Automatic annotation (TrEMBL):
Keyword hit for Cell cycle: no
Family matches, as Pfam families: Amidohydro_1
Domain Amidohydrolase-related: 52-399
Native source organism of the sequence: Paenibacillus oryzae
UniProt name for this protein: 5-methylthioadenosine/S-adenosylhomocysteine deaminase
């Protein structure tokens, strides 16, 4: 299969300079990018008036929580989790998880996201949805060790890794997921780190999301959350994906320096839950890889990565009282090359270049809020939103064109979501 995109304004994210040109896709990879390519193709896409850029990568998600969107807002994180989210999750059947994940994937594809990192339960169902929708994903079974059935969760985590790593034409990868410093005690945490190092499996966890977490870890271990992970040996060998990392002091940032992996900043979720502003600029200055994520739709409400790009940039400007901080290209880099590195797939995705996987989005520029095109980087970072994405290509396959989803039956999806979402929250 050869697909040719003609005459698009191409932003490769390898360089800051857009240019008008053509992109040739062969199978699942980009074969060539040039100002002009004349060749035969099975499908030709007219890219005129469109920007072509790498698909956005959502580095921290809980996809089935899309079924809990707008169910419970305006609460503190711990109360929201304990009183609303966990009871609702306990009501979710594997089929609910499948449809919730599919709802999230429909929204992601429609807003230009081509890959994501997910941490949840019933991962078989999420993996099946990834296989069908055509998305790229890094899947993690979230592990909490507060009750007695930690063993069952661990079996599920290992089963996911064995069954799904490298599956769906290589689109699925997996991680091990100790949920957070406040839900995993030192001994199981150490065992997970040892296993990750032994088997070369990346780790995905939450870190220092709220002030309450900082207080709790201080009371329990007389450490900061970052110190807790550092002394467990978390940042020595394994690739680690840290979500949030809002409350880090200078010394904490030092602990992360030189780590494999990095931090998924989730600015909209942090804003809405009143968590604080993550020290993104300081982390970048220390060479720590930073990417962007939404967190679940239960907290962030939408999965639109353009909102995250904008919020990330504007929060750093506000925090420093300095509009030169985190300029457009840097914020766009977080959502592409940064997140790709966090998912450990930077060799395959994150930029448009020959040889890489064809994960490409086309954004309609002929719209009042996207004209004139003085500076494409500014428009994409500060003005575009998910609904401006016209075409989404993942692994060389067109999964949305003209805003029509090609791998998901939207009508059936809406029907399932309506019935299931009501049943889940009954009595909570
Ligand atoms: N609770 C699961 C294991 C964790 S999966 C990932 C978990 O992260 C939770 N979660 C969602 N958003 C956040 C957040 O912002 N901070 C911490 N946890 C979150 C989510 O509700 C889900 O329970 C079990 O019983 O086995
Ligand atoms: Zn989360």
């Amino acid at each position: 299969m050869r697909t040719l995109i003609k005459g698009a304004t191409i932003l490769t994210m390898r360089s800051e300079e857009p240019f008008i040109g053509d992109i040739l896709i062969e199978g699942d990879r980009i074969a060539d990018i040039q100002p002009s390519i004349s060749t035969q193709a099975d499908t030709v896409i007219n890219g005129e008036g469109m920007a072509a850029m790498p698909g956005l990568i959502n580095a921290h998600q809980h996809t089935p929580m899309s079924l809990l969107r707008a169910f419970s807002d305006d609460l503190r994180l711990m109360e929201w989790l304990d009183k609303k989210m966990l009871p609702a999750e306990a009501q979710m059947t594997p089929e609910d998880i499948y449809w919730g994940a599919k709802l999230a994937m429909a929204e992601m594809i429609k807003s230009g996201t081509t890959a994501f990192a997910d941490m949840y339960i019933h991962m078989n169902e999420i993996a099946a949805a990834v296989e069908e929708t055509g998305m790229r994903a890094s899947l993690t079974r979230g592990l909490v060790f507060l009750e007695n059935d930690g063993g069952r969760r661990m079996t599920e985590a290992l089963d996911l890794i064995q069954r799904w790593s490298g599956k769906a034409e290589g689109r699925i990868t997996t991680m091990l997921g100790p949920h957070s410093p406040y839900t995993v005690p030192p001994q199981p945490f150490r065992e997970l780190i040892a296993l990750a190092e032994q088997e070369n499996i990346p780790l995905h966890t939450h870190l220092a999301e709220t002030k309450e977490e900082v207080v709790k870890i201080r009371e329990t271990y007389n450490q900061t959350p970052a110190e807790y992970l550092f002394h467990l040996g978390m940042f020595e060998k394994a690739h680690v994906l840290l979500a949030h990392s809002v409350h880090l002091n200078r010394r904490d940032i030092g602990y992360l320096k030189g780590m494999r992996g990095g931090v998924s900043h989730n600015p909209v979720s942090n804003l809405k839950l009143g968590c604080g502003i993550a020290p993104v600029k300081d982390m970048i200055e220390q060479g720590i890889t930073t990417g962007l994520g939404t967190d679940g739709a239960g907290s962030a409400t939408t999965l639109d990565m353009f909102e995250e790009i904008r919020a990330a940039s504007w929060l750093q400007k506000l925090d420093y009282g300095d509009p030169t901080k985190l300029p457009a290209f840097d914020a766009l880099s977080m959502a592409t090359t940064g997140s790709a590195a966090l998912l450990n797939i930077a060799h395959e995705t994150g930029t448009l270049e020959a040889g890489k996987k064809a994960d490409i989005i086309l954004i309609h520029l002929k719209k009042p809020h996207l004209q004139p095109v003085h500076n494409l980087l500014s428009l994409l970072a500060y003005s575009a939103n998910g609904a401006d994405v016209d075409t989404t290509i993942i692994n060389g396959k067109i999964v949305m064109q003209g805003r029509q989803l090609l791998t998901i039956d939207e009508e059936e999806l809406m029907k399932q979501v309506s019935i299931r979402s009501k049943r889940i929250v009954e009595g909570i």
